[in-house]
Amino acid sequence: QVQFVESGGGLVQPGGSLRLSCVVSGLPSNVYGMSWSRRASGKERELVARIRPGGFDRVYSDSVKGRFTISRDDSKDMVYLQMDSLKPEDTGVYYCNLYPTRSEWGQGTQVTVSS
What we know:
Blueprint: E1 3-7, E2 10-12, E3 18-25, E4 33-39, E5 46-51, E6 58-60, E7 68-73, E8 78-83, E9 92-99, E10 109-113
Parallel strand pairs: 2-10
Antiparallel strand pairs: 1-3, 3-8, 4-5, 4-9, 5-6, 7-8, 9-10
């Protein structure tokens, strides 16, 4: 069974940066696409970034394009999300998963952007 453990969230001021990390276990993640999604309070989960195996193809939602960068380190079964120029509307719980996403989700990590 695949498992995801996200970390790195916190409280940051608008314009600040955070780097999220995710450990993947239970399958050989290097052969799968990976993704980050987020859920703001009262809203549906939104896919914000995905990356193909090998890391050569990355796709972002319009809401984060140019500010967020997804990357992966398959030697460590890790996926990262570098978030720069953060805005209050980026506030939410962030989750990693495969791409296409599986039904299993981790606990996520809370990101709060506020002054």
